[in-house]
Amino acid sequence: MPERPAPTPPAATPGPAPAVHAAGFDELDRTTAYRLWQLRSLVFVVEQDCPYLDLDGRDLESATVHLWVEDEAGTPVATLRLLDDGDVARIGRVVTHPDARGRALAGALLDEAVARIGGRPSVLDAQAHLAHWYARWGYAPDGPEFLEDGIPHVPMRRAGAGATDGRRAHT
To answer: Domain residue spans in the chain?
Structure first.
């Protein structure tokens, strides 16, 4: 029997941007908080096989903002957190549920995160194969590639004042 090619993920379809929710830790209801951390564990710990302590205390910081997109049932299917690292903002824990990929949900989260950051410089540690994706929002490599939990990462930085409005480049 001939091998069938792997299915191609669906292309992001144009349409209304998904609603992005935002809250600090103290504003999250317990069910949403549980589902955000469950989603992060599903992808980072189980799917990517990286046993690490996700709950590092940064989610509790007063300046941390959790951003997420929900499915039709109200369950978070994509999330990231926006941290205050003093002189820079930091985007981290960007994740999309495997069943929700290909719908531009992470892109909507990045749009919102970068809009919230505004003219402030910001950083993130991108999985190396996604560095070109983050470049759409003005992020550029800012140091040598490194391994985190066995996965190659690239430190990236986005300029502060004078940067664009934060929306992704149309590429």
So the answer is: 21-119
Summarize pLDDT for 73-87 with one digit per residue, the tens: 999 999 999 999 999
Question: What's the number of CA atoms in the CB half-sphere (13 Å) around residue 36?
Answer: 24
Helix (H) or strand (E) holding 131: helix 131-134
- Confidence (pLDDT) at 4: 42
Pick from 69, 26, 50: which is nearest to 152 by CA? 50
DSSP string, 50-67: -------SGGGSTT-EEE
Nearest to 164 by CA among 128, 110, 127: 110
For residue 152, the one-letter residue type is P
21-119 is classed in which CATH architecture?
Answer: 3-Layer(aba) Sandwich (3.40)
Q: How far is CA 110 from the centre of its chain?
A: 7
Average pLDDT over residues 11-36: 86
Residues in the chain: 171
CA angle 76/81/82 to nearest 5° reads: 145
Joined together, the tokens standing for residue 162 give 């004078």
As a whole number of angstroms, the distance between CA 99 and CA 115 comes to 27
β-strands 151-158, 140-141 pairing: antiparallel
